[in-house]
Amino acid sequence: MPHERAGHPAQARSLFNPATVIAVGAIALTFLGLSILFSASAWFKQGPYYYLNKQLIGVVAAAVLCFVVSRIDLDYARRYAWWIAGALGVMLVLVLIPHVGIEVKGSKRWLGVGSLRLQVSEFAKLGLVFCLAHYLALNQTRLGEFKRGYLIPLGLVFGFAGLVVLEPDFGTAALIIAVGLALLFMAGAKWRYIAPTAIAVVGAFSLLVMFTPNRLRRMMEFLSEEKSYQLRQALAAFAAGGTEGTGLGQGRQQLSYLPEAHTDFIFSVVGEELGLGFTLGVVAVFTMIFIAGLVHLRRAPNMFQFLLVLGSVLLICVQAIVNLGVVTGIFPTKGMSLPFISAGLSNLLLMGMLVGIILNTQRTWGRAVLPERGRAMREVLA
Amino acid sequence: MSKGFASNYRIVLLATVCFGSFGAVAARLVWLQIVDREKLVASIARTRQSATPIPEIARRGDILDARGGVLATSSPRLAVGLDPWALLKRDEPKWSQLAALLQITEADIAAAARRRFRDEPTVTRSPVVKTDPSTGRLTINLTPPVIVEDDDDDDATDTPEESGRKQVRWTVLAKEVSEQTYAEIVKLGVKGVRGERAYRRVYPNNQLAAHLLGYVNRQQDAAAGVEAQYDFYLRGQQGWRVSERDGRGGELPQFLTRRVAPAHGYHVQLSIDLIVQDIVEQELAHLGEKYRPAKASIIVSDPQTGFILGLGNYPTFDLNAYNKVPAAEMARMKNVAVADSYEPGSVFKIVPAAAALEERLVTVGRVFDCTIERVVHRGTNVSLPAEDHPMGDLTLAEIISRSSNKGAAQLGLLLGEEKLHRYAQAFGFGRKLGFPVGGEVAGTLHHWKKWYPIDITRITMGHSVSSTVLQMHQAMSVIAADGVLLRPQLVRQIRDAANDVVLRYDRTEIGRAVSPETARTVAAMLVGVTRKGEGGRPGGTAPEAAIEGFDVAGKTGTSQKLIDGAYSKKHHVASFVGFFPAGRPQVVISVIVDDADHMAPGGVAYGSKVAAPSFKRIGERLIPILNIQAASRPAPPRLLAAQTGGRR
Predict the structure, then answer these.
(1) What per-residue string of b and e applies to B273-303 under the rule 16 or more CB within 10 Å gives b?
(2) Which residues on A lie below 8 Å from B19 (Cβ)?
């Protein structure tokens, strides 16, 4: 693999480093999420601890995954980039096959055994970032070419996004395209390719919206003053909370007024129970994660790892932005969970892996580059 | 970027977009949670029901008999209904099972599920909490939650809709479901189908004491009888709690802010004895079957205290099916023993007899010529009433025992209008006696100054005067109670939920009518009524009422009914009112049968033939129940001489 560079040994091993900031932020958000989730789901008919227990198991699993990912050799794993992308692509197809994929409320998004269910598109997001980073790093000198610098990576992005749209899951597809295009853009793709593509994507989504009555209705609701029931209740929750908040466990909106209070709309429960301080705090923590990510990137040793970490940070932050925007009524309603806080195993595992990647690079970026060749398998897991 | 993996301006552009987005979210949050807050909160206040007072139903107290037996009680019950807004499409296959459990048809469920709006916007009956703006006080308008048993189950916990149409949030499917069935329904798990608990008034003995107890109607209002009269004690005090409701109208116990526990109703214990009452009603049923009278009443009471032990009327009705009584037969629900008056007939003769004795105008042995046709009274030639059987010279005792109309009329003439009127009043005629239930009437006793000259000869035989069955019964009780008129009472005591007595009713005297001596003298004369004739000497009018081993005092009455303004020869009210043992009366029994003629032997319903046997049957059955002792004070010898020895 060409163009590998050494890190900065001098900057090694300070406890106060960007990755630690991100990890602490992630942990803080996770714990906030657990408390709010308990409050939001304690009155559900499955029992007060049902979602809390599930989420706790998810947090432990995500922590384990985070640790594993932080210990693997990313450059070694890079060799399997296409395999990873291919496998996820196959899984995305499998999801669509009846009786293989699990259908919930009309959407086929899940693969699972027994009570364990995973949302494939969550992992596909990381898979795409991984393989896109690999490809773009490989072809970084030829990104000016139309085919290698534009068509192939774009095909990759739209291939994944297209499979996700078929589920259908427009939110995740849009997120994949947004992050994919951002990576392409940051890797240095030409403006003259990127700009028309972005416009075309927006146009395509608009058309899609116009031809799907349900989505069109949602969009019209968004544009008009008459908000949908769910959004009205979400906004009401923020208002009810005000600056002080009603106190943990004292919120009313999640009590069957607000649908999906424990998943996509959990942020409004934060708003109601904990008030403006905490809602702004959550926004600040995500912003901090973004800033820390940018600071961290300055030490990136190679294009692949640069793009991989950038992609990871973007997956966290863009998803957060979309969710926060939807819940506060800035964007039209779109199913998207809030990283670290919303209930949901798959997203939690993905977030664990993303943080794991950042911790991984924090560990390795300070280190001298070792010879690549002739490494034994045992060395791969450093 | 130090290494040039990405150009600086691209990094800056990306960062700007992200910072901008986060900034926009932050700004939006400030807007929502501070600036625009008031407006938004106001908008949800409409959809969110905060701090709703939720009534807690108090249990209505029981009505008990003198021995503590239950006459009326409240049993918890479970109604199952559905919320058409909470039903799910996927539950529809379960409807057939649900219908089978509730014993209704699937179409019933479907109909209830379709009705999502009330037909017309009406005033909601749910309680409202308002803050009085001037005082800042919380005022609560509480209406008890009622499960209306009408087919029209509108009385639901409906929520107001912004358009003005009201959503139906509760439609009753089955009014009464067992706990077991309900457990199965819960297991079935149809969303939107739930049970509601309430109390239901139950009368375990059905028609028993129906006219006394009254009933509680569908709207949970006490409608008649003890239920209505003692509603204040029985109903208890509704409790309430202030809590919040969630989006589906379910209560949120975690937001309970205050709670006032319901105070359960008091129990009312009657003087009625279940067994006595049952005997009374069995006898009434027997009379009803045998004679098909227009109506009949029987009263049994304790003469020493005035407490009613049993009171029944024919026809009657089932308290548990009070709403099944046809409109044309509403008279069944009337307590005719206190609400209707009749001309008491010969039973009334005890009044002039006692009065004349009390006034010392006569002695027991005084002989009257009972063949006189006419007398001059107040300057008018007045004809004396006819006799049923030819009489000769009769002593006062014989006038009573053989029920001579002419004799009684002469007693009246001896007394004069004013005194007869005064004594009639003292015996309780012409005024209400204060019986608590049944809509008591006063009867008719005109003031003596309005009497025509002939009236005094008719009133003495119980015509031209009307009384209720209860009044006549109570007048007879005066004789049994040594001359004192007692208030007829029904309620012994009122107990709270812990069974402690909170109110006790005692023997209450209305006033003394005659002296004890006079009362005992009249009682002894009344024993003659039930004596058999022996040795050619004629007996009393009602040996049918005699009870072996006891001296039975009583008086028959056979009054002609006023039909179209004239006394009828074909329609009579047959009565027998008496008590025993005569020397120490323990029980007074009245049997009054109205219009039993067409089925009576000989076509005339004589009190001796129709009512007296009933008196005997009831009396005999009461002996063991009330522990009536035959040992009585010996009657004064001179009285016995007067009765058996004839005139002197």
Answers:
(1) bbbbbbbbbebbbebbeebebbbbbbbbbbb
(2) 287, 290
